[in-house]
Specification:
Layout (H helix, E strand, L loop, with lengths): L21 E14 L6 E9 L2 E7 L6 H17 L18 E13 L5 E12 L15 H5 L12
Antiparallel strand pairs: 1-2, 1-4, 2-3, 4-5
Length: about 160
């Protein structure tokens, strides 16, 4: 099969397919519950869509990490409350979320260093609200990767300068 550049049809592709840092009103277009890989613990995956840009919020509600599990369960409950689920203490149907609209705050998360040495930040959903809620637009600053901070040239010692 011979493919040419002119064979591309980009009419269904948005210019920026990843939902960025900020506050967004989104539609939950997909909701899944199950393991990512066979043998792993199940997770809740919610695909958030705003004008063609998407973000997958992965909630590890059965995490081995107690803190991670608590945070994921709190965020899941926030989605249930924001979508007016009848009993947010007892979720019963993952498909409830499909088609629902909420407002989310996405902030820069843990920093990382790419193979080429450049740095980036993961993105985290830090707040889930009703779609019509008033939400502060302020975003926490990104944190620098430990590796980049260590190589910044600042060599501090334990000596106290007074």
């Amino acid at each position: 099969m011979s493919l040419a550049f002119s064979d591309l049809d980009l009419s269904g592709v948005s210019e920026n397919s990843a939902l960025g840092v900020g506050v967004h009103v989104v539609e939950i277009t997909e909701a899944k519950f199950g393991p990512i890989q066979p043998g792993e613990r199940p997770v809740v995956e919610l695909e958030l869509n705003s004008g063609g840009a998407t973000f997958t919020d992965r909630l590890r509600v059965f995490s081995e990490s107690e803190v991670g599990q608590r945070i994921s369960r709190q965020r899941l409950k926030a989605y249930l409350v924001a979508t007016d689920f009848e009993d947010p203490d007892n979720p019963s149907d993952i498909n409830w979320f499909k088609g629902k609209r909420v407002k989310v705050k996405i902030e820069p998360g843990k920093a990382f260093v790419r193979d080429d040495g450049s740095t980036g930040n993961y993105k985290n959903v830090t707040g889930v609200y009703a779609a019509d809620a008033q939400v502060s637009e302020s975003i926490a600053p990104a944190t620098a990767p430990a590796l980049a901070a260590a190589s910044s040239g600042n060599n501090f010692d334990d000596a106290i300068p007074f």
